Amino acid sequence: MLQNVHIKNMALIDEMEVYFENGLNIMTGETGAGKSIILGSIMTALGGSTGKDMLRADAEYGLVELLFEIRDPETGRLLRDMEVPLSDENVLIISRRIYPNRTVNKVNDEIVTVGRLREIAGVLIDIHSQHEHQSLLKKSSHLQVLDRFGRDQIMEWKEKTAADYDTYKALQQEMEQGTVDEDTRRRQLDYAKFEASEIREADLQLGEEETLEQQYRKMMNRRQIMEAIAHISQSCGYDRPESAGEQLSHALSEMEKASGYDPELADLSEQLTTIDSLLNDFNRELSDYMNGLRYDEQEFRLTESRLDRIHNLEAKYGRTIEDVLNYEKAKQEEIARLEEYDDYIRGVEQRLNEAKAVYDADAAKLSSYRKQAGEKLAAMIQEALKDLNFPDVRFEMLFEPKSEPSRNGMDDAYFIISTNTGEPMKPLWEVASGGELSRIMLAIKSCLAEEDAIDTLIFDEIDVGISGRTAQKVSEKLSEIAANHQVICISHLPQIAAMADVHYRIEKSVIDGKTITGIQALSEEESVHEIARILGGVEITDTVLQSAAEMKEMAKRTKKY
Description:
Blueprint: E1 2-10, E2 13-19, E3 24-29, H1 35-45, E4 62-69, H2 73-81, E5 91-98, E6 103-107, E7 110-111, H3 114-124, E8 125-128, H4 130-133, H5 139-149, H6 151-178, H7 182-202, H8 208-220, H9 222-236, H10 244-261, H11 266-292, H12 297-317, H13 321-339, H14 341-387, E9 394-401, E10 411-418, E11 426-427, H15 428-431, H16 434-451, E12 456-460, H17 468-482, E13 486-490, H18 494-498, E14 502-511, E15 514-521, H19 524-536, H20 542-558
Parallel strand pairs: 3-13, 3-14, 8-12, 12-13
Antiparallel strand pairs: 1-2, 1-4, 4-5, 5-6, 6-7, 9-10, 10-11, 14-15
């Protein structure tokens, strides 16, 4: 459940704190008061698009924070499966800080990508905007609705069908690429043998390149190494009075004298002796290194030539020796395939037919579950539409087979509807008006809400294009959904405002020369006055107030919780 929204520096909002409750939360206000800004800010926090125009003028950044209380066990399980950490109080906080050229997205103080933010938001909240009901005009969205409704059975077969399709298409591509005429086959075989032979004759060894490059650098920089070691030997040896070895010998002699006078210096004398021993060992090993450092012109040329050959093969067949060896392995497989071409093609063809049979079987199973779910969903939506003042509605889902296989199965499905007696069933995009689409989407949402674990649903002006008796029916349907879900709704109709469990008024004011949008949770009396304002317009009479109070009382009697 969305408990709290904190908005700062977004459009007309200076800073705002909103506490939402369980049940039906209704926001009303004058046109232009900023209702859409609040919803837009919530959508932005959940990963929606951002822009400079969203920021308040002269603000360095905008901030939206959402606090969710995770009450539903299934929602908690889904979040844990997504490795989203929850507090001991089962609270999740989403925050999005919007700068002119970037955003910072956090979930429980952990920075996340926008994609990750949207994935998490999809588990927590479902937002219906005016734009979304237009998606019903797209045939492809209807199958998405069905798959979401019946996902418990459909998803398993949908995933199987997608995997089957990938296997089938890979084999189909292999068949297309592997089918060649005799002349092409011979050319490919000769070239594959040439490439494999070139690599094999090089006798490459893993780790060889690194060893050779180390030797090559050593030989290339022999003079610089010798000069450096000579200086080190002079500094650390015993040949010069100022060298470390000579100075250390003198110090050791003095220490031995001093320790003869004071036994407490024995430990220091021992440490100095150890240092002298270590320096002797160092000088001896350094001398051995110098004696072993030699330059062999032939060895240098062989090393250089070997590296050139390796680099040439890597330029042709891969970035590393491992890549080149893998390329040779692939060429050997290609040679075997081309040498046994007829057997290979028969094998691919057999595997292709087997893969197609598996796909067909799983796609048929997917289609069967979809049709079962589609029949159930259509019946539920039809009943919900009757509740929304479509008394003679008929609503079904029509299935048509696709002409070609796809990752999404063989189904082409879409909703068909008849809103009046005697009218033929037609696709939604051919018959539904704006107001009808809003009610159809509300009916769909009410049916999906019964199946979804999503706690919170937000509706932005779901009442567009409706009034009168239909508006009353919509308010009752929203209340019905709110019996089991938190519903947040922006509305301009008194019937819906009257049904609110919590009623908020959004209004603009001018403070210190700045226009600011604010929000206020209304008391029972204030809610009646706000409903009266919606009913009566400029002048609110006692009759209008009485009508508003009656609407509020009637709404209370209508609620099922």
